[in-house]
Amino acid sequence: MFLRHQTRPVNVGGITIGGNNEVVIQSMCTTKTADVEATVAEILRLEEAGCQIVRVTVNNEEAAAAIKEIKKRIHIPLVADIHFNYKLALLAIENGIDKVRINPGNIGRREKVEAVVKACKDKGIPIRIGVNAGSLESHLLEKYGYPTPDAMVESALYHIGILEELDFHDIIVSLKASDVPMAIEAYRKAAEVIPYPLHLGITESGTLFAGTVKSSAGIGALLSMGIGNTVRISLSADPVEEVKVARELLKTFGLISNAATLISCPTCGRLDIDLFSIANEVEEYISKIKVPIKVSVLGCAVNGPGEAREADIGIAGARGEGLLFRYGEMIRKVPESELLAELKKEIDIIVTHYEAT
Ligand code: SF4
C-alpha cells in the first residue's frame, strides 16, 4: 500500500471515504434521472462492475423525486449532482440521497445555504465541493487572470470556509481540470492545506482510449503521492468503462483489495498460440472477480514459468498446447483448444478456495 495522506473520514451512506480507508470508486449515470427504469438498470450494471458510489444529475424536480424509488432498488450510496438550486438539494435530501455535490458559494443567500447545511446535518449527509477549472468564481479569475492551481485551491477554501462557519465538517473536495498538470498541481497543493478527503478526477478527459490515458496519467501521479480518497474516471463512454479503468488503476498501485489482476505478455516471434484472444477473454472473465488473485497468460516457456511463479494461476504457451501453472508449479499440459476452459476452471477453484479461507 502507498502511504496515504491523512484526512478526516467522511461517511457516505455507510461507506467511509478518507481516514485509513481504501480508495473508493465512483461513477456517474448517463441516464435522465427521472427515468427510474433506465437509471436503476445502469446503476446495477455499475455495481456489478465494482462501482461503490454513484452520482446522478438532479437538475429538476422530477429527478429529485425519482431518488426515492431509485434508492429502493440499488445497493450502493447515491449522490445528487446539483448546481445552484438549493430547493433541489433539499428535495434530494428529503428523498434519501446519501451525499450532495453542491458548491455552497453558488447557492445564493445565506439562509438558503443554512437550509441545505441544516438538512444535511440532520440526516448525516456529507457535501462534496466540486471545484472546476472551467467554472471558477469571477473574483478569482479577476485576481489570477485565468484558471491556475492556486485559484482552484482558493476556490475550494472559499467554499469550505462557508461550510465551516456553519460548523459543518462532513466535506469532500474535488479540484477538477481537463489540463492534467494543472489538476495534479491543484490537488497536490490542496492536500497540503485541506484536511478533508479528496475526490480525484480529470474532467472532460475524452473518449475511452484518450480519456483512459489522460486520467491514468493525472490520477496515477496523485495516487503515487498518496493523494486521493475516492476516484471517478470521466470518459465519453459507457460509465461501466469508467469503473473498469478505475479498478485497473487502483490495482496498479496496490490500492484495491477486491480485484483480480491479469499479467500477460506483449507476444513476440516465439509465440505459437493465439495469445491475444486468450488474454482478452481471461481479462473479461476475471473482471468481476472480487478477490485479489493474480493470473498470468504468457506466450511461451521462455519467460512464462518465471512469471507464472509470481501468479496464483497461469499458462505459458507452447506449440499447439499450453503449460498450466498453479502457485508456480507446473500442474499439467493442455491442448490449445482446451486451454481457456481449463484455465477458467482453475481460476474458479482458486477463487472458491480464497473465499473459503
Ligand atoms: Fe515472447 Fe515468450 Fe516473452 Fe511472450 S513470454 S513476449 S512469447 S518471449
From TrEMBL:
Pathway info: Isoprenoid biosynthesis; isopentenyl diphosphate biosynthesis via DXP pathway; isopentenyl diphosphate from 1-deoxy-D-xylulose 5-phosphate: step 5/6
Q: What cofactors are annotated for this protein?
A: [4Fe-4S] cluster
Its recorded reaction(s) are:
(2E)-4-hydroxy-3-methylbut-2-enyl diphosphate + oxidized [flavodoxin] + H2O + 2 H(+) = 2-C-methyl-D-erythritol 2,4-cyclic diphosphate + reduced [flavodoxin]
User: What Gene3D superfamilies does UniProt report for this protein, alphabetically?
Assistant: Dihydropteroate synthase-like (3.20.20.20), Sulfite Reductase Hemoprotein, domain 1 (3.30.413.10)
From which residue to which does the signal peptide run?
A: none
Q: IspG C-terminal domain location, by residue?
A: 262-348
Q: Paste the cofactor note.
A: Binds 1 [4Fe-4S] cluster.
Q: Which GO terms describe its molecular function?
A: 4 iron, 4 sulfur cluster binding; 4-hydroxy-3-methylbut-2-en-1-yl diphosphate synthase activity (ferredoxin); 4-hydroxy-3-methylbut-2-enyl-diphosphate synthase activity (flavodoxin); iron ion binding
A GO biological process of this protein is: terpenoid biosynthetic process
Q: Which InterPro entries match?
A: Dihydropteroate_synth-like_sf (IPR011005), IspG_bac (IPR016425), IspG_bac-typ (IPR004588), IspG_C (IPR058579), IspG_TIM (IPR058578), NO2/SO3_Rdtase_4Fe4S_sf (IPR045854)
Residue ranges of domain IspG TIM-barrel in the record: 7-246
> Pfam families of this UniProt entry?
GcpE (PF04551), GcpE_C (PF26540)
Enzyme Commission (EC) number: 1.17.7.3
Q: What class of enzyme is it?
A: oxidoreductase
Q: Which UniProt keywords apply?
A: 4Fe-4S, Iron, Iron-sulfur, Isoprene biosynthesis, Metal-binding, Oxidoreductase
Superkingdom, natural source = Bacteria
Q: Which positions does UniProt annotate for [4Fe-4S] cluster binding?
A: C265, C268, C300, E307
Q: Tell me which NCBIfam families the record gives.
A: ispG_gcpE, PRK00366.1
Family classification: Belongs to the IspG family.
Q: Which PANTHER family match?
A: 4-HYDROXY-3-METHYLBUT-2-EN-1-YL DIPHOSPHATE SYNTHASE, 4-HYDROXY-3-METHYLBUT-2-EN-1-YL DIPHOSPHATE SYNTHASE (FERREDOXIN), CHLOROPLASTIC
Please name the HAMAP family in this protein's record.
Answer: IspG
Function as written in the Swiss-Prot or TrEMBL entry: Converts 2C-methyl-D-erythritol 2,4-cyclodiphosphate (ME-2,4cPP) into 1-hydroxy-2-methyl-2-(E)-butenyl 4-diphosphate.
In its UniProt entry, what is this protein called? 4-hydroxy-3-methylbut-2-en-1-yl diphosphate synthase (flavodoxin)
Q: Which organism is it from?
A: Paenibacillus stellifer
